[in-house]
User: Fold this.
Amino acid sequence: MNRTALIPWLVLLLLASTASGAESRLEGVATLAVMSFNLRYATADDGPNSWEARKGILANMLRESQPDVIGTQECLKSQADFIKEVLTGYDWIGAGREHDGGGEMMAVFYRKEAVTPVRSGHF
Assistant:
């Protein structure tokens, strides 16, 4: 494995070791808790794995974890709205992949007390 291939792994290791949850944050030390989560779109008709069946589990997990930043995959606007509703103190940035702004997106949620976006964009 070449050295440049190791860089992403080192960054992930550093993030994992310094931002493993709210309870481990050190007084006076700047840390950032980051979570990546594939929400799986909400329109699938797949019984026990449907959005309605799993959104409460997701809400509980996010409330308990309270990361500073959450990067999502396969997020629909209705899911983003739900997450913002259940996570007080958070906001989000994202745009659907369709021309009208609808469809799946990679929404990024952030705890407003910890993070202030300086600039955002979508491509």
In short: The CA atoms of residues 21 and 41 lie 26 Å apart. The two ends are 31 Å apart (CA to CA). The helical segments are 3-18, 51-65, 77-86. The longest helix spans residues 3-18.
